[in-house]
Every structure is written in C-alpha cells, then in structure tokens.
Amino acid sequence: MELLPRSPAEFGSARYWDRFFRQRGQRSFEWYGAFPELCPVLHKYVRPRDKVLVVGCGNSELSEQMYDVGMCEDITNIDISDAVIRQMRERSASTRPRMSYLLMDMLHMDFPDGHFQVVLDKGTLDALLTDEEEATLAKVDQMFAEISRVLQVGGRYLCVSLAQAHVLKKAVEYFSQEGWVVRVHQVASSGDKQQFVLPVFVYVMTKFRKIPGSAAQILEICPEEQDKPMRVESTEQLVAAVKDRQHYALLCSQISKTPCREQVSLDLCDKESGKPRYTLHVVDSPSVKPSRDNHFAIFIIPQGRETEWLFGTEEGRRQLAASAGFGRLLTVALHREQHYEGMAGIQAELSGKVMELAPLGLPARHQVPFLSVGGDIGVRAVRHCDSSPLSGEFVVEDVKGEGTCYFRRLIFLQNRNVVQSEARLLAPTPLPGQKKRRKDKKKSSPAEPPGAIDKSYLCCEHHKAMVAGLCLLGGPDTLPGELAVLVVGLGGGSLPLFVHDYFSQARVAVVEIDPSMLEVATRWFGFSQGERMQVHVSDGLDYVAKLAAEAPAQYDAVMFDVDSKDLTVGMSCPPPAFVEKPFLQKVKTILKPEGLFVLNLVCRDSQLKEAVLATLRAVFPLLYARRIQGEVNEILFCRPGPAGRCDPAELGQRARALEGALRQPGRPWDSSYVLADMLQAVHIL
Q1: Which side of the chain, N or C, has fewer Cβ within a 10 Å radius?
Q2: How, if at all, do strands 100-103 and 75-79 pair?
C-alpha cells in the first residue's frame, strides 16, 4: 500500500490526504513527537481556559490526549481532508463534548479575528514548506497571515517541527519582522535510540503589537536540558544553534550503533555563556573483548594536563583507552575559563549527557565508572590574562603535574592545546628559624602553587635537544668557550636563560617581535636582561637581514624557536618566511665559519616538510636531524660548511664532555637531563 506522495506538492492536496487516511484506517499517524515528550513544553504555553486551534490535525492523538489529561478542553481541530474529519468526529463525539473537528483550509479560515489564544501545528508547516519555490512560499505567507489574524495579542503559535534550516528560517524571519517574540524549544527525547533520529523542536511565536519603526528582535533557544532560554542575536545564529543540536543527535545515533573508526571530538558548552566547558573525545578499542563491566568509562583529564601527549594526541588517547581496558573510553578535558566543583560535581553534571554517547549493548542501569589520575581533577590557577595585536589572547597559568610538581605555562588561546612556554616552579623552602607547619587534622584545600621559577629545568624536550646540539661547536676534545648566541623567539625565556646561566661565558642576544612577550617573560618566568643577555624587540626577519648586511660572521650559534600565527599552513613553527632560501642564506652569513644553526621545525604537511628540508640542504652542506619522540617537533642542526661531521659515537662523547662541564658544584642540574641521550637519535640528512 503506497502512502507516500508522488511529489511534494501533493502534501497540500485534499485528495492526497483523503486517500492517505482512508488507506491508513483508524490507526493514528504521528508525524513526530509523542505526547509524553511534547507535554512538558506544551504545558508551559497552553492554559486550561485557552481557546486552542489545531491546524492540519490529521488523525493525531495529540488533541485527544491534551483534552484527556485536563490541559485544555476548548479545542478546535481543522483539516482539508473530509475523510479524516469524519473519522475524528466519530472517535470523540461521545467522550469529548467540548472538542470539535471542522473541514477547513487553514489558508482561508472562517474564524473571526483574535478568536484563539493558541494555534497548534504539529508537522503541518513542515508538510507545506517542502521547497522554496515562489508558489510554496506564497502559501506559507498566507498560512502565517491567517494564523496571525485569528490569534489574540499575547497569543501563542506553537509549531512542532523537525526544524529544517529553510523552514525554521522562514518562520523566524516572518514573525520576528512582525514584532513577535520567537523562542525555539528542543523537545527531550524518549531515550530510545531505535526511534526517530532527528530531534524535534517546538517554535513558540508570541504575538505582540508591531511597533512602527522598531527593528528590535527577541530570538531565544531552550535546549532540552534546561528551562532558561538563551538569547541569540540573529536568525542565522538561531538556525546555527539548532543545526548544532541536529548534528549532535545524528552523531549520537551513529556512534551508538557502530564503533568509531576514528576518534570523535565535540564540545559541550556552558549554559550561561555559551563558551566550551568540556571537550570530549570518543575513543573505541576494538581489541578489547567486551564483558559486562568493561563496555564504557569516562576519563576526566586533570586540569592543565590536557596538552600532554597521553591526553592531547590521538595516539596517546588510543593507548590510554587500551590500557584502561574499556571498549569505549570517553575522555573529558576541562576548560580554563570555567569553574568546577570537584569530581563529584563534574560527575553529576555529565552523567546524563555522556550516556547519550554510550555504545550499543550497554547493560540496562549499568553504573558507568568515572576515572582520573589520582582521583581528582587537578589544579589550575590562571595568573595572568591579556592580549596583544601580534599574539592575540594569551594566558599564564600554574598547573599541577605528577606528584607535587607545579608548572607555569604560557598559552596562546588561538591554539589553546599547545603549550607555548613552560617552566617548573620551585617548592617553597622555610625561612631560617621557621618551623614546619604541622599537618592539619582536617582535609586541606588544594595547595597554592609556589611562585619561584626553577631556571635549572628545561620543561620542553625540544629545548633540551637544542641545547645538547651545542656540543657540535668546538672540536672533538675542546668545549665551546666564549659563545655568541642569537635566539629568535623569546616566549617565556627558558631557552635563552638556560644558555645564559650554564654557558657562563656566553653572550646571548634575543629577538622578539612582540613587546608583550618580553613583559610576560620578565614578570612571570624569571627572565632578566644584563651584560650578557640583551633582548631586541624587532621582527626576526628584519633583524637578521640587517645583521647580514652590516655585521656578518659574528655568531657561534643561531637558534630559531618562533611560532607561526597562520593556522592555515601545515607548519606551526617557524613561519614559512623563515625557511625561504634567500633568508636562510642571510642566516648563514651571520654565522661564523664553524658555527651552528639550530631550528625547531613543527610541520604536519609532509610535502611542505620535504620542501623545507630540501631548501635547508641547498644552503647548509651538513644537516643533522633529531626527532622529538611523541611530538611533531624535529630539531635540525645545520652547519655552514662540510667540516665537523660527527658519527654517533663522537656525538655521544662530545655531549658527555659538555654535560660534565655544565654540571659544576653548587649549580643545580636536573638529573633526568642527559645530553648524550638527547642526541642518541640524531642522524645526518
């Protein structure tokens, strides 16, 4: 039995609907949204004494159920199908005396002006607005005009819809331009993932008298999980917000039925501000054999540790999921702009939402475990927020690492998952004569991070490799003595500070384009200038070009650790202009004949990377490379001449000798930093 129309135009044909309802018989037909799901929204806008008009009623049970539960009894139902009107009259004649069914076209209604307080439409607008042809839009305008005419001022037009973009846009634009208040509710789903996938929405258009000359619009959206409406500024924003919820529903439906081949990422936003509050990654482990207790788990990443390899990369999260032993692991990263009430608060906040991302086959009423490192949500203290024209918005924050270690980080918010600079903080030491505080019997709050910078510790692995590469300077049996070093890119200042402090005869010049970074490094990362440390606020391209023209061959080492602000390029460090051949030739010019150019290269585009390496080889005859394990960074050591080629054994010997010279009595040294280890994987390109 064929019930579908031959063309969308038939949705507006009385003949089609007569045939449809005769063939369907007494079985009710619900477009979408059962009464239990719609009831919480309808209850807000339909009062018992309201006169209600249902347009395009069909044989839906919605009016009958509203009547039977006492929501409202004065209900008039209209439809263009004579067959369905006769059928519905027979169903309700003896049991619902105040409810009526009339054969009437909603485009030409016989009711007087302002006759109803509520007009209810369940799927009728969706059925009429099947395309955006001129004739269709004219019918919709006529429908809206008639609804507006029969509604009282203060009355509500409630439209149950799947909210296709063109349908929602048309309704919102029409009624907002008439001065009506427009609110869109998302209807809470039944939780049955086998039912209709797309979410159902109710447009609530409240009639106000149009104020001549006023262009003000009131547009709001109410997500299913909250009653408080969120104000939006334009029709486009409202349509986009609805589209986000539709995409989320499709995603939940898809991943509930099949395992994810690729990791799925999404943001859950704060109800008040609309800003991201949680970032979720869905990680499936096909190798894990399912059992009753290992279907699904939630892993809360401690604050400030979301950038670590284990939590911040696909491969890291894959290993985390496999080691946790769950078929599906949902990792949750917490955002720095948000406040959290501990693990229990997060669990209460997320419990309902994360179950929408559960895999198929999860046992009923299964208690999903929440996991974390050490059982807490970590510590993050934002010390400084600012912005600059060159770097954009940035923050300085203190975070707790493993054990009792604290770290200070500089984060550029345009790339918030990348730590720009990092320094370890020293544990506070008691003053002479000061007694240690006894442990309080009551549980203490999270410790306040210490403030002093540990200048002996290089947090970044690529900085450790860059320093280790300085052993290439000098001969196999001689250590670098007086060094002239140029560092392009200051950041928090850890790299030039370490070179300055541990190479006691080195003169370090730093070039930084952004004066804000010099202020940040000085105030928050313990950086200072002096006789052997000078900062030049300048564009590195211009500074090197000027040196090449005026003072060539003056540096023993030139180090580039400068990030690119252009996120559209597959290379985030350095900017492309810094690895173009004419500029690299200028870098070679300012190096001494036995000097060393050290480049931190971060390039995800394999073709671009090969092009950069080819350019480097064309300028520098001898090129060493050191890949940083678990990171995209690759450190390149470039020599201006072919002399000084070292095999791995000699590199190790030089590194051990250099480390011995740097590790002087009374000078702190991180025992985990072994220069020879940093050069083990170095190879010649």
Answers
A1: N
A2: parallel
